[in-house]
Amino acid sequence: MRDGRSWPLIIGLSSAAAFWVVGGALLLASWRIGVGAERSREAPTCAHGQLLTGADCRAEVAGEVTRLTSTEMDVTVDGHSVRAHVTISGQLPSSPPAIPVEVTLYRGHVIHVENNANLNVDTDAAPSTRSENYRNFGFCFVVFGAAVGVYGAVKTVQDRDESLEDPPWPVVDGGTGAAR
Fold it and tell me: Which one has a higher pLDDT value, 48 or 58?
């Protein structure tokens, strides 16, 4: 440790630990939000007066989409206009001014909108949407952290044993693409 050859190992393992902590936190958040998604599926049915309140209930009601963009959707439910934030990539369906849809509400928020034709959208307020995002990023952080740790360990072993060299990478010749 006195000769400075352990620094790649220390930095590699520290970086790996940091990535694992962040990855673990994201996986924990994914699990917690998954519990919320399960609660939203198992919530009791809303009474008519509870549709747009924060009551812990779920309702599937008829409505109309009056405006749809890649970031927002305006839905009319029970005579009230509700704006929901969405993330839609790709081409939006062409639609008449008002599209009849089935709207799923949970705790007063629109979480899902669909119709029989070509519209099936989870809003950004839907717990399942965030759960999948956190899980995917968490796995990426854990895998990348493992790669950083292994790289630090390999570099430390290479630095301690001077007979080990970096693997020989083929050198590609100018514009021909042939290896030398």
Answer: 58
DSSP string for 21-60: HHHHHHHHHHHHHHHHHHHHHHPPBPPGGGTTSS-S-EEE
CB contact burial 32-41 (16+ within 10 A = b; e otherwise):
ebbeebeebe
Q: Left (φ > 0), alpha (ψ -120 to 50) or beta: where does 10 sit?
A: alpha
- pLDDT band, residue 141 (cuts 50/70/90): very high
DSSP category for residue 128? H
Q: Which residues contact 74 (CB under 8 A, 6 or more apart)?
A: 65, 66, 67, 68, 81, 82, 83, 84
Q: Which of 118, 55, 106, 109 lies closest to 80, judged by CA?
A: 109
Asked if residues 13 and 152 have their Cβ atoms less than 8 Å apart, the reply is yes
**Amino acid identity, position 157:** V
Pair of tokens at residue 173: 């010749």
45-126 in CATH: which number? 2.40.50
